[in-house]
Amino acid sequence: MNVQIFIPCFIDQLYPQVAFNMIKVLEKVGCTIEYNTNQTCCGQPAYNAGFWGEAKDVCTKFIKDFKGADYVVAPSASCIGFVRNYYPKLFDNSSLHNDVKNLSDRTFELSEFMIKVLNVDDVGAELNAKATYHNSCAALRECRIKAEPKQLLSKVKGLEMIDMADNETCCGFGGTFAVKFDPISVAMADQKITNATATEAEYIISTDMSCLMHIDGRIKNVGSNLKVLHLADVLASGW
Questions:
Q1: Beta strands in 186-234 (DSSP E)
Q2: What is the pLDDT at residue 179?
Q3: Which residues contact 8 (CB under 8 A, 6 or more apart)?
Q4: 126-235 has which fold?
Q5: Which residues pair with 160 in a beta bridge?
Q6: What are the Cα distances from residue 130, in Å, to 1, 5, 80?
Q7: 152 in Cβ contact with 115 (< 8 Å)
Q8: Helix 182-198, helix 209-222: angle, nearest 10
Q9: Which helix (H) or strand (E) holds 126?
Q10: What confidence tens digit (pLDDT) does each residue in 24-54 have?
């Protein structure tokens, strides 16, 4: 199966190991990976900041970069949710309307692609640790992803998963929200850390590195021993 991978801006610049681990996992389950080096951003930051015209230009490039029939897979429910839910609004009644619909139908976040398309939940991963899971808002509310990551994590040898309180509550990042409403954002991240610490977990795992980046910033600030791991990092462990 041919798969085009989309690597979000912040993963490309700050967490490239997440991208490499996603490729490692997809190749292990039989996918042929292609990476279009012309790709840039999905357009979400500009859109969320209110620059819809500029965002549409970036989105148009994204549509052209991933034109074709291959599946598009990304290690970010946030970006996938934006493509699925907001591209149709930006390009409604335009010449790209059908291209957008086609792209939305074949664009997936890593965990849902593994479960819903490949029908694979065990890649032979092993991680001897105790962890808790954070449901990102984008995964849970925009992509309706809830069971898929947990199904994959349940097959990781040696990994003990413990639910933390309010695991479906926002971490406080929300892109520009963290900049515009800094005190609220910080308080939400601190509550997330408090809830995770109460489980005695070593790691917080999520589908979205943007959430984990925000949480990790507060972890370092408050001196917690917690660590963060993207789902792709967990699935690529132990083999």
A1: 203-206, 227-230
A2: 73
A3: 41, 42, 74, 75, 76, 78, 79, 209, 210
A4: Rossmann fold (3.40.50)
A5: 130
A6: 34, 30, 29
A7: yes
A8: 80
A9: strand 126-133
A10: 999 999 999 999 999 999 999 999 889 999 9
Residue 3 and residue 73 in contact, taking contact as beta carbons nearer than 8 Å: yes
Domain layout of the chain by residue ranges = 2-117, 126-235
How far is it, in rounded angstroms, from Cα 110 to Cα 232?
8
Coil, strand or helix: which one is 52? Answer: helix
Q: What is this structure's pTM? A: 0.94
Query: Which tens digits make up the pLDDT trace of 136-153?
Result: 999 999 999 999 999 999
Helix, strand, coil proportions of the chain in percent (round to 5)?
50, 15, 35
Q: Are 132 and 201 in contact (CB under 8 A)?
A: yes
Q: Which of 56-65, 168-177, 199-208 has the lowest mean pLDDT?
A: 168-177
Contact 41, 66 (CB under 8 A): no
